Amino acid sequence: KQEVTQIPAALSVPEGENLVLNCSFTDSAIYNLQWFRQDPGKGLTSLLLIQSSQREQTSGRLNASLDKSSGRSTLYIAASQPGDSATYLCAGAPGGATNKLIFGTGTLLAVQP
Amino acid sequence: DGGITQSPKYLFRKEGQNVTLSCEQNLNHDAMYWYRQDPGQGLRLIYYSQIVNDFQKGDIAEGYSVSREKKESFPLTVTSAQKNPTAFYLCASSRYNSPLHFGNGTRLTVT
User: Fold this and answer.
1) What pLDDT was estimated at residue B5?
2) Residue B8, preceding peptide bond in cis (omega within 30° of 0)
3) Which residue does chain B place closest to A104, by CA atoms?
4) What is the pLDDT of residues B64-75, one digit of tens each?
5) Which residues 6-35 of B are in CB contact (within 8 Å) with A?
6) Which CA distances in Å does B20 have to A18, A39, A77, B6, B35?
7) Residue by residue, what is the 3-state secondary structure of chain A?
8) Considering CB atoms only, which of A34, A42, A99 is closest to B104?
């Protein structure tokens, strides 16, 4: 059964620091790897989607990459800001079931001003 | 503005009662999903629908039911058969191979 691990579970950094969040899947056959942000009591906001034919995606200060051989993804946040404080979740579709995303438990990020 | 609307934001019910959570989208997305989120756990898929009048069970469908009579709407009923219904419920929609868009969730408390 596909499982997703996110490391670290929580992270506190000073403003301006660059940081990396990690996500790993027990089965490396992952499709449509997505990173989301969740603010307390809210729904999820999609940040980046890495489709099957891609290895990374960038949006502003965010960069996500996927190593398909190991089933690991990283989310890089440059020059962190207090507004980046949130829970970050990764999700992927195992095998060909592209509609059935499996989610990690998230990394709670706090950026201190 | 396009988006997904979930209502109500908070819902309280007595044990043994069925309750229906609303999810409406105006994004013209074909696929819609229901997830459940519990503290310390990732989101778990309850049901999903790829087209009107068709839906599939997710990983934790027991005790839940859905309908998809219109493209815009995908209501979820939490029945009395669901043993632990208290949770945060999230609805999402997407086009094929595109990012999921989520609503702001309904927090259901059953006592």
Assistant:
1) 97
2) yes
3) B42
4) 999 999 999 999
5) 6, 31, 33, 35
6) 44, 25, 39, 11, 14
7) CCCEEEECCEEEEECCCCEEEEEEECCCCEEEEEEEEECCCCCEEEEEEECCCCCEEEECCEEEEEECCCCEEEEEECCCCHHHCEEEEEEEEECCCCCCCEECCCEEEEEEC
8) A42
